[in-house]
Write a structure and sequence with these properties.
single chain, 228 residues, Rossmann fold, 2 domains, seven-stranded mixed β-sheet, 10 helices, elongated
C-alpha cells in the first residue's frame, strides 16, 4: 500500500504531465497515478536492477506493466532531453538531488515542475532551486514513521525573492499543518539545546559567540512557533 508521503508527492502531479519518477523503488507512485487517472505517460527509473525488479513485480500484479516505461540509470541520464516535463525525486539527500539537477542541465530547461522530497540537506536544495530559474509554488510537511518529511514543489518562473527564514522553513510549509509544524520546531530546538549542553558540559573550545548564535536561533524558532 502506498504511504502517505508518496501519496502527497503523487498528488502534486498535474493531470496531463509527462512524469519521470527518479528512484522509483517499488513503483508505488506510478501505480497510484495510473489508478487515479492522473497521468497519460510515466517513465520510472532507478540506479539499480533490484528496485526496478521490485517495480516490475508490483506493476505486473496490477496489470500496469505496459503503462510504465522502466529504465535503469543514474538521475536524469536515462531520459532524453524534453522527454518529461515533471520530475519526482524523493527519498534522497538534498545534496544528491541538487547534484542530479545540476548534472541534468540539458533536461532542466524542459522541466516545468519539480516535486522533491529530500531526506536532509533541505536548505541548500531550496537555495539552488531559487537561484536556478524555479519558484517554490507549494510545500508540505508531514510526520510519518517517526520522521519529519519536507516536500518542495517548484515551477519555472521569474526569480522569487527570499530570505534566510524561507531557506530554512520555506514560504508556506509551516502553515500547512500547525500542530506538525510545532513538533518540527520543537525537534529543532531540542537538537540545538543538546549541542549547547554538550559544548558547555565538555568544556569545548567553541567560542562563546558561537554558543550565543545557537541561543539566538532557539529564540527565533520559539518566535516562529508562537505565530502558528
Amino acid at each position: 500500500m502506498i504511504s502517505e508521503r508518496l501519496k502527497i508527492l503523487a498528488n502534486y502531479v498535474n493531470k496531463n504531465d509527462v512524469v519521470g519518477d527518479i528512484g522509483t523503488d517499488h513503483g508505488f507512485i506510478p501505480i497510484y497515478l495510473i489508478e487515479n487517472n492522473k497521468i497519460n505517460r510515466i517513465i520510472a527509473s532507478d540506479l539499480n536492477e533490484g528496485p526496478l525488479d521490485n517495480a516490475k513485480k508490483e506493476l505486473s500484479l496490477k496489470g500496469y506493466l505496459n503503462k510504465v516505461d522502466l529504465r535503469i540509470g543514474s538521475g536524469l541520464t536515462p531520459y532524453k532531453p524534453g522527454e518529461i516535463n515533471t520530475a519526482i525525486i524523493a527519498g534522497m539527500g538534498g545534496n544528491l538531488i541538487r547534484t542530479i539537477l545540476i548534472e541534468g542541465k540539458e533536461h532542466i530547461k524542459y522541466l516545468n515542475r519539480l516535486i522533491l522530497q529530500p531526506m536532509h540537506g533541505v536548505e541548500e536544495l531550496r537555495r539552488w532551486i531559487l537561484n536556478n530559474g524555479f519558484r517554490i509554488t507549494d510545500e508540505d510537511l508531514l510526520f510519518e514513521n517517526n520522521i519529519f518529511y519536507e516536500i518542495i514543489v517548484a515551477e519555472k518562473g521569474e526569480k522569487q525573492e527570499y530570505n534566510e527564514t524561507n531557506i530554512e522553513f520555506g514560504f508556506n510549509m509551516l502553515n500547512k499543518n500547525p500542530e506538525i509544524s510545532k513538533s518540527f520546531l520543537d525537534m529543532k530546538i531540542e537538537r540545538i539545546e543538546k549541542i549547547i549542553y554538550d559544548i558547555e558540559s565538555h568544556g569545548s573550545s567553541m567560542s562563546q559567540s558561537k554558543i550565543e548564535q545557537f541561543k539566538d536561533r532557539i529564540k527565533q524558532y520559539q518566535e516562529v512557533r508562537k505565530c502558528l
